[in-house]
């Protein structure tokens, strides 16, 4: 806004309230965004951040409170109102249309038209190409969105916001699925938008990102505004205390253990176009982390070891016994458990009760004479709910009623109840709030202390550095570095993840 | 971008061929069906050269016209991840109401016959659309119920009284048998509707909204697309076109009883799926679906002309349906693999 003084706020949400039935999701949602400023919104899961975002997006209508954009009070009846007011949202989960082209995804509902309101595809593709040029990326606007990597999907979302000339850009955990260079690229874009006078609101569970890129921080707890402060006036400890309402124990507990017998031995495993010549071992009592950028093939390696994805060459053996390729059942029988990265889609059946989810991997053991007893399921679930300190209403409630962290505990319980030799865990704490994060880390640590072998995939460097005994770094489907706990640091991992040690040049 | 690290974006100019090839493959569905029509036609002609006679070809086109017209509305509905199973019943009841209008009001203008048919169809389309969008009931259930309810209403209305050719004005019947340069008028009419719809589905924002809704309903909501309104419109169009089909049914056969349009819904859905419209929405074209309707009818007629049991028709239609679905599945797997290996190859550069 050219007429506004630099310190007039661009968007003010004041004491917004929102209830869903008896649940008060938002009691006091307040935030003030200034032009040219990146503002972090922090809080544990369930603190009401997402509800606040959806109010700004026009998806939810607040029960009370006021919203002012550009000095004028506004009421958003739907997402298009918010868009018209210059508020753009980038959601945690990309919201693309897989069947439509990249350009159509960007210009959905406002495609450039020619006479007779007909869509002008050529102009649309050209405009999309221009936006990508501004972002410094090369993407074919006419390809379908299906098959884009998460990072590229995020780019399409950003291109959408950019093409709208958004005055306010809200990003709900945009970096959760990104790593390293992708995150840096995102921040470059954020910087550009800020320089052009836009207000950016940013939600992240990674505090180091917040310190690196934001000027102001607002903290929420239990649906309420707690405090707003310039970022350089608060310490990490203060932030965590405000978010959690109490002091936290160490985020990364680490019991030193002596690695024992080799549990997993992967030798020369390859799959065309996905990964090649992967060899490594995991021993009892150690955590081996697979690090690397998104798309480097980390999850694919883990999935191939477990047998979900195919592998063409190489051997995988568990405790000396060679596993057949592409046979998850054989992997399970040999004592491998896999906690997948996407717990909603792959880890849980969201509509099934908590106890049935927990029992899902042990049905053979729980059945007598081919018939499943509910009481056996419930007993197993109750046992593991206690051991993992699960916070739940009733075990008969659907898994979807749990918070992200507690859902992750259910997935963990499901596999741990099989008493596995090797636990493969993909992004153990993605999208989980700080409090539960520490709990998950403590669970993993105690398992390893008891002699389990753990293969962990994580995009969060602090997690990798804090938890792993050894770090394998993947770059473009190859292992480019194997670092001991002593040698691993942010710099060495990032260099290997970017392929710098293998002689590639920028 | 001041980063000294190489950008990990797997994007690059190397992507264009995949995009282009993908477009090519999608277009290949229509060409593939057109080729199949030619193959079936040639094979049937070899077996019985009467198949290629002008009269036989006219019958071929006329026979496919009604179902082809219905595929237009059905495509619009299925693209939004819904389905309209009531179309056959709607054809039946609107055909009877059109016939009744002509019978009970001699001298009714021909054009009014179409208006009545479309109005009846639009009414039932609106009811379907309203129930699906307002009460958020799965369209499969709503329109299955509609299939039976409307069929029942039709039975009550007909009450054993068949509409005879004597009741239908000559001018109206001519639409069913006149030809222009040897091409049936009714077929030309349907062709115009198909082409207009095909153009609209590509070129208008509201039509692209339909694809968006079917491709990712949640994202469509977030993108500010009026999803309920669009889905309602799709059902309204499907109903209206079923009503128009009913009127053309009267023109073509000049006789209506309670069996009119019975079973059409399955022929239509089969044609739409064979024609490359994804049953879970998001993709597919009107042209492909309409061509598939012609293909299924050509197979039907070819078997009749070759004196092969009509039961084969059903078996072949079913087999084609399976083949179409298997083809779609393997295609999407191939594309996914191609994109993956290509990204891999690009990384190795």
Describe this structure in words.
Chain A has 506 residues and is of the alpha/beta class. Chain A has 18 helices and 24 strands. Chain A has three domains: 183 residues, Rossmann fold (3-Layer(aba) Sandwich); 175 residues, Rossmann fold (3-Layer(aba) Sandwich); 75 residues, no CATH class. In chain A, α4 crosses α5 and α5 runs parallel beside α6. Chain B has a domain of 196 residues. Chain B has 13 helices and two strands. A two-stranded antiparallel sheet of chain B has the order 1-2. The longest helix of chain B is centred in the C-terminal third of the chain and has 38 residues. Chains A and B meet through α2, β8, α5 and α6 of A and α1, α8, α9 and α13 of B.
Keywords:
heterodimer; A: 506 residues; alpha/beta; Rossmann fold; 3 domains; six-stranded mixed β-sheet; 24 strands; globular; disordered N terminus; disordered C terminus; B: 349 residues; mainly alpha; two-stranded antiparallel sheet; 13 helices; 2 strands; cell membrane (chain B); cell inner membrane (chain B)
